[in-house]
């Protein structure tokens, strides 16, 4: 069986990414390992009193993201593809690569929005970062805008 890691961000193009990953998994007899990396600073806010931490905000956000991750996993399983998932907080690129190594991934499947280089300069690109850092092959799926 081919192990496939698929990072998800719950954006509006996640469904396209998952559909492509499921098709690929079916073609190669693969298992999908979903990972969502939440930012480390979810519960922090800046206000009149400076930085404040609200653990209940972070807990609620993580709980909601876990529900979303479970829903995606169930859709994958319903299509006949085995799946597991992980939700962690931290630096996305590093945690995705760590998870891929832990699962002995044969591929990491990511999406490309085809944005300009200028976009990458200002916003950064997880796909670009993974491409430069990963020793595991990346399958980059074109995501339609």
UniProtKB/TrEMBL annotation:
Keywords: Cytoplasm. Residues 3-142 form the UspA domain. Signal peptide: none annotated. CDD domains: USP-like. It is found in: Cytoplasm. InterPro entries: Rossmann-like_a/b/a_fold (IPR014729), Universal_stress_UspA (IPR006015), UspA (IPR006016). It holds the Pfam family Usp. Its main location: cytoplasm. Belongs to the universal stress protein A family. This is Universal stress protein.
